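Late entry, written up from scratch paper. The run itself happened at the end of the previous shift, but nothing got recorded in the book at the time, so transcribing now.
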Amino acid sequence: PPPPPPPPPAPVCNTGPYIVFFDWDQSNLRPDAASVLDNAVAQYSNCGTAKVMLAGHADKSGSAKYNVGLSERRNTTVRSYLESKGVAGGAIATEAFGETAPLVQTADGEREPQNRRVEVTYGPNSGM
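Output as recorded:
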């Protein structure tokens, strides 16, 4: 008899980043965020027990202290969404960068939509 077929390949763990953007001075999810986060959750199921890291960011339009708090609120919103979709809260770590790690360099006080974000990543160097 012919040999058995080879086993299917293991699913690939796409570690991200999955980036969710926010409106100015807001921490609520925009309508386009759900599809990004749903994709992140679907990919997470291929990652076994990987740790999850949420990195919150803000633009430079507020004070540095305020922007760290805003980044924390954005992380909390994304964490709540991921947990509601089945990602274990204990697997999620967060860090609020405020305005210190922009995607787009700007002058202090400038509003930049791409800097108002949370980045979701998985894997060995993510999370705790």
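Residues 18-122 form a domain with the 60s Ribosomal Protein L30; Chain: A; fold (CATH 3.30.1330.60).
(Scratch paper discarded after transcription.)
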